[in-house]
Amino acid sequence: xxxxxxxxxxxxxxxxxxxxxxxxxxxxxxxxxxxxxxxxxxxxxxxxxxxxxxxxxxxxxxxxxxxxxxxxxxxxxxxxxxxxxxxxxxxxxxxxxxxxxxxxxxxxxxxxxxxxxxxxxxxxxxxxxxxxxxxxxxxxxxxxxxxxxxxxxxxxxxxxxxxxxxxxxxxxxxxxxxxxxxxxxxxxx
Length: 189
Fold this sequence. Notes:
Blueprint: H1 2-30, E1 46-57, E2 60-73, E3 78-89, E4 95-106, E5 112-122, E6 127-136, E7 141-152, E8 155-165, E9 170-181
Antiparallel strand pairs: 1-2, 2-3, 3-4, 4-5, 5-6, 6-7, 7-8, 8-9
């Protein structure tokens, strides 16, 4: 009876160790995609509801930013945003709209980080979904290391990681790319 009890205890301990190992491996795989935006424990220097910012250059609007709530922190020159929308305007008239649950804008560089429920739509019908991304203002690039999905005009593309150059309008999915092409229905003549 004692041997049976020891065997059961040994099996339970072994099962617990195996389960811990599986959880640790899965957590490490997901960690690169789980970049959280720092929310300081400090009180904001300024809190604003319904924020609207615009940046212009030579009389042309480059981008607009709207947020339901914005908290500005003097330390670090950053502003945390909730329920935000960023609209980017291209020189040829195309418009890219980015929506997300929360984000952060660097007040000096105008770089933006967004996370949670991200949907990017273009004026020509493409949509992109992911859970985190960054906009680098100086280079006019959008990038992420998270899983992405692009839908539009009979095609679905998914993968991990993305680099979008807004100046050249080139999009690169960096890893594990899958493409599904939908046939358009035939038009009867």
